[in-house]
Specification:
single chain, alpha/beta, L-arginine/glycine Amidinotransferase, Chain A, five-stranded mixed β-sheet, four-stranded mixed β-sheet, Arg_deiminase
Length: 407
């Protein structure tokens, strides 16, 4: 029986979900990339090769790598899952009944690997071979998308996050990413690996609910261990979302405390893990420009009733030290002078994925910061990120741990 449990950020990583970027990147252009929340267009082949190095680096560390596209294709083998996905992702309200039906009929005849590729990577009007009797084809230009590509699926960290003995299936803040959540909803419900799994679903399982302002993304959620969770309230994660997740963590008895800290709402610090990650029990990587002493911070506690009580904390570092039961935290700041540090933070120097205590995966280009990690006794397993890094996410962003040991 598979074990679904993530007990920390730093315990031995055993199983992880990644997404190799392919078709979605071929649809990125300078004129549409910003709408799709990408800052740049990437070299597709090189990004894929860099991602392969990332996946193999993890495999060499004994981590089982699951790939999103494979899981989605296998989920489509379950007739109920396929029907649900086609109806949800290609609804009558999205396209009008006639065109929606034409697109669904075309797609449902495709081999499942190809269908998964289109759901993840998009379909332009010029790529649709059927002549529909609806107005939609005449109304839209050939380069418009019937199905928008989802390049941000590369960052599997955000759409769902495993916290102790369960998962939060996250309602995303930006429209360009909301369809991603339905893919993981289907996988966790119907894929044979998960269908009989013994785990809690804390939040977000129901696609029919309008989650309104209660959004949360996994890049803001750090499972620091010992029953505590650290969550950043960022551009994408709201206090309302944090409270919803906290309530269910307490209700199920999976966590005893959530530490919530406020982050500036700007692009370079989109999620907590772009400015702070956990590397060893008492050691965090931080970008000091953002992780300042005056950051507002609350400690949330509760019980089986699901009621959440918030107490403001004076300094988040003390709150973390208390939660982890360690002496003084060791904070390793981004390397180089202030210019170099800002550049390296933008290139995800702080966004490392810990494989086991004191061993992390990070981009090789962040030389100043990697040197500081090395001096602090942290081993960096370097991966190339010249293309991948332009998507504005590092190794932690690109991974969703499904099984990881406690500390």
């Amino acid at each position: 029986m598979s074990k679904f449990y993530v007990g920390s950020e730093i315990g031995q990583l055993r199983r992880v979900l990644l997404h190799r970027p392919e078709r979605a990147l071929t649809h990125l252009t300078p004129s549409n990339c910003h709408d799709l929340l990408f800052d740049d267009v990437l070299d597709v082949e090189r990004a894929g090769k860099e991602h392969d190095v990332f996946a193999n680096t993890l495999r060499e560390q004994g981590v089982e790598v699951m790939l999103l596209k494979d899981l989605l294709a296998e989920t489509l083998n379950v007739p109920e899952a396929k029907e649900w996905l086609l109806n949800t992702q290609l609804s009558d309200h999205r396209f009008g009944p006639t065109f929606a039906n034409d697109v669904r009929c075309f797609l449902s005849d495709l081999p499942h690997a190809e269908l998964a590729s289109i759901l993840l990577g998009g379909l332009a009007y010029s790529e649709f071979p059927v002549q529909s009797s609806s107005m939609m084809q005449g109304f839209n230009a050939p380069n418009d998308f019937i199905i928008e590509p989802l390049p941000n699926h590369l960052f599997t960290r955000d759409t769902s996050c495993w916290v102790y003995g369960g998962v939060s299936i996250n309602p995303m803040a930006k429209e360009a990413r909301q369809r991603e959540t339905n893919h993981v909803r289907a996988i966790y419900k119907w894929h044979p690996t998960f269908a009989q799994g013994d785990f809690h679903t804390y939040y977000g399982a129901d696609s029919n609910i309008n989650y309104d302002n209660a959004t949360i993304e996994g890049g803001d959620v750090l499972v620091i261990g010992r029953g505590s969770v650290l969550i950043g309230m960022s551009e994408r994660t709201t206090p309302q979302g944090v409270e919803q997740l906290a309530s269910n963590l307490f209700k199920t008895g999976q966590a005893k405390q959530v530490i919530a800290m406020e982050l500036p709402k700007h692009r370079s610090c989109m999620h907590l893990d772009t400015v702070m990650t956990h590397m060893r029990e008492d050691t965090f990587s931080v970008y000091p420009e953002v992780i300042r002493k005056d950051v507002k911070c609350w400690s949330l506690t509760g019980d089986e009733s699901g009621t959440v009580k918030a107490t403001e904390e004076s300094y988040f570092v003390n709150a973390i030290e208390k939660a982890l039961g360690v002496g003084q935290l060791n904070l390793i700041t981004t390397g180089g002078d202030s210019f170099e540090a800002e550049r390296e933070q933008w290139n995800d120097a702080n966004n490392v994925l810990t494989v086991k205590p004191g061993v992390v995966v990070g981009y090789s280009r962040n030389t100043y910061t990697n040197e500081k990690y090395d001096k602090a006794g942290i081993t960096v397993l370097p991966i190339p990120g010249d293309e991948l890094g332009r998507g504005r996410g590092g190794a932690r962003c690109m991974s969703c741990p499904i099984e990881r040991d406690d500390i």
